[in-house]
Amino acid sequence: MQGFGGEIFQVESCESALEIQKVGNAEVDDDGKPRRTGNLWTASAHIITAIIGSGVLSLAWGVAQLGWIAGVATLVIFSGITLYTSSLLADSYRSPVTGKRNYTYKEVVRNNLGRAMYLACATVQYANLSGMVIGYTITASISMAAIQKSDCFHARGRQAPCAVSHNPYMIGLGILEIFLSQIPNFHKLSMLSVVAAIMSFAYSSIGVGLALAKVVSGQGGRTTLTGVEVGIGLSAAEKTWRMFRAFGDIAFAYTYSQILVEIQDTLKATPPENQVMKKANVVAVSTTTAFYLMCGCFGYAAFGNSAPGNLLTGFGFYEPFWLVDLANCCIVLHLVGAYQVFAQPVFSAVESWAKRKWPKSNFVNAEYSIGFCRSQRLSVNFLRLIWRSSFVILATVVALVMPFFNDILAFLGAMGYWPLTVYFPIEIYIAKNKIRRWSRRWLGLQLINAVCLLVAVAAACGSIQGLNKALKTYKPFEVKE
């Protein structure tokens, strides 16, 4: 056995001793990196995990604000826009001249649009991704607290005082994510994404099932073609703001472009990555749209114009309490996986920079395999251990101090949606294919750009209004009644 600075640490007996050895690369791809093993189904799982968040449960509220015609049309239109722009971006993974890979979204932007756009993309992308993991910490804690509250009401009666603190749940989730964050990269994240995707289908299906049962029983709410109606308790101005927020919620519900290239970088080289990624886009977006339509339409039919912001809360904390608890458990498990999917590009950005800065540092570059016996091993890198743990701790602290962060996340989503999902993919496509200004195709692409920009601006205004309300009632570390 050699010293700490040596190449190998090894103890032959694995029955009771710890074995540590430096990890080597047995098989590599054409770029010298470990061989990629992703396929259509792992890519689809990553995308579904990223797209279907707990926000799917707010789609009934969105459809209620817009009505049957505009609500359904908006779901279908933004599904088509997302699928189209994602396919454009998938074709940008490799350089058409050299075949060189672009490992990240920002690299695609830099190599096609220049350094200024690269910096703008990196800023928006990492702010958006960091905000997502903080928002997921808060959302997961809300679902865990809802389970405790539901069980309290069931055991002690509907009038019982069941105040719940979200803080212990945020801390517990943070501790779990510290361990999960040591998963080295997207290539090793497939199983977690598959589980998270299954969980997203599970709680969406429970919401749809409960809503359908309410409709079939004849207890559905009153619906209209144009959604909630202006009248007592709702001014025309408030109706307009709600419509803007609904447009924004539906548009953002399809967003995953900020991690599309990173997902594509997990795919095997054959068949060509762009072909597989386009198929994965179709599978994931089509599946997602079907669930979105069911949640939005059945939820609206069940609750009518008074549809709640969260479909599950509309059924109360009471009966069937066990089924709502199960749905909340699925939400938590999904968000645990989605946290890692959104955090991986942030982790990778810092680690890649450190490897370029200190290429000979063992602290930065060395991988050590730790475990009992060869069949049960864990790969450890000291930079990854310290940096990722610090990031998770910071995200958890922000979630604890700012429980209204979901309102900030709505603003970040509004600011990030248009450039990341629409503008950059379209501009990259125009630059690569040298499309002439004012040509028919150029005008069509710019029309999509303009429409989505208007939606993003309207949603940003609505989120600022919501943030202003949240700040007025903000109390740190508050225990919810």
Automatic annotation (TrEMBL):
Q: Does the keyword Transmembrane helix apply?
A: yes
Keyword Endoplasmic reticulum belongs to the record: no
Superkingdom: Eukaryota
Provide the alphabetized UniProt keywords.
Amino-acid transport, Membrane, Transmembrane, Transmembrane helix, Transport
Q: What GO cellular-component annotations does this UniProt entry give? A: membrane
Q: Where is this chain's protein located in or outside the cell?
A: Membrane
Q: Give the GO biological process terms.
A: amino acid transport
Amino acid transporter transmembrane domain sequence ranges: 37-466
Identify one Pfam family in the record.
Aa_trans
Query: Any stretches that span the bilayer, and where are they?
Result: 40-61, 67-90, 116-138, 189-213, 282-301, 321-342, 385-402, 408-430, 442-467
**Name of this chain's protein:** Amino acid permease 8-like
Instruction: Name the species this protein comes from.
Output: Sesamum indicum
